[in-house]
Amino acid sequence: MAGSKARYTGAAPVGLAGGWSLERLVPPSRLFGANGLRTGPDGRVYVAQVAGSQISALDVATGDLETVSAQGGDVVAPDDVDFGPEGDLYITEYYDGRVSVRAADGATRVLRDDLPGANGITFHQGRLFVNECRLGGRLMELDLNGGAPRVLLENLPMPNAMEVGPDGLLYYPTLGGNDIWRIDPDGGEPERVAADLGVPDAVKFDSAGRIVSTQVGSGEVLRIDPRNGERTVLATVAPGLDNLTFVDDRLFVSGFTGQITEILPGGRTRAVLPEGLTWPLDLTVDGDGVLYVADGTYFHRFTPGTGLEVLGMLFSPGWPGYVRGAAAIGRGAFAVTTSNGQIARWTPASGEHQVLAGGSEPFDRLYGVAAGPGGDAVAAELGAGRVVSVRGGEVTTLASGLDRPMGVAFAADGTCLVSESGAGRVVRLTGSGAETVVDGLAAPQGIAVRGETLYVVDAEAKTLVGAGLDGRSRTTIARDLPVGPPPGVNPKPLKGLVPFSGPQGLFAGVAAGPDGTVYVSADAEGSVLALRDPGAGGARTEGTGLA
Q1: In what residue span(s) does the SMP-30/Gluconolactonase/LRE-like region domain sit (predicted)?
Q2: What is the model's pTM?
């Protein structure tokens, strides 16, 4: 299939220090996840991508993608889209609570900016309907001239993507209620159409007037006859389905992993776009040398010859929240930091997590986490400029007054190291303060230690640096890495929306394996890199994509 280009193309290929090699364990992603879908007047499928603040147009025949609204532009965290009667693209911006309008020439204007959790959007006979995917969300008709909305319903349990059926009624799903409802667009009492589903997050109609609904929890694509309630499972893809659209009578669904899937007769499916990583964020290696990848709403284990295996995701039992930082702590457990401001202990196999700190008073933008020598969890709190330690429910501030701390690691002697992304340095915490280990960096994020070597990902300089812990040696191992925002792009903040996520932000993590392999989360392109120095005896690991 044509159109294999990844979502990110660097200014230059990655350059490596002498003797080092690089392998992508998973291929680069083509999208930043995939959320709202809508077939445009040109027959292409328009794909909203919350995490990447991007909208792309997909030719389902060729697989070619065109970026319609790019990261760093006026549109932030687009979740759903529809076309107005004049051909303008109307967009819900989930985290900013906005509805924007993008004209054919690219000019964008904000129609409303007071709709928290703005999500589902649909036109019917020139009338625009929008809902808010939040607890207590509203269903509204918007004035196309910017006047006050007409509220049809309030206090809904997270309504989502919706559409008017052939009977003229507006159908909408609710994630919190696990059901589908309908209401007359002119008002009146709502009627429940279907209940006890697989957590429906989108409703569209086929040419025969039947509901087709994606189930984010079960991964099913359901067809429901609104006249008699008869249900048919068209296909089961995977948990994390988000939306759907028809191109003529062909059905396409989106998923959080960025996969666009065509649903074929007999329960068969065809991947139009492959799945991939949305960011990724932090990396960690356990005592057996197994690599784990935190990807926000997903958490993966990498196995040579198999690829990435999902250990947990947003709708998994015991999910701790949007995972940003992760550290393997033994026996299948992890210390994690979440974007909702908690430090937790999580065991994916048992589906259980325990909030260690930040439950009643969330931290301000947690990033990296590491296991301390005494069994405590140590994390960087970027917003407060400090590093905290949690043991037995007690929180201790190890260092304060730091400039945007992000990465945390421990040396073999128990010394805590912290990257200050704002100050461009990595420091060693001592009883009297912080001592500089490496400086002159642009924006260091993830750090890792193996032996006497400190590895640092400088996201702004797009380099991987190896430095001696004694400060006497320093090598740029790789340059022009696909990390951080694209050159010249300044991404707008992703504010998040509870309960799904707190504020989101880029974080290029790094981990060191026992065989000398250095792993880097290439968040710009959505892949994981393995860098090896033959002198360290690193063995080659085969990457086979996501599983």
Answers
A1: 33-233
A2: 0.94
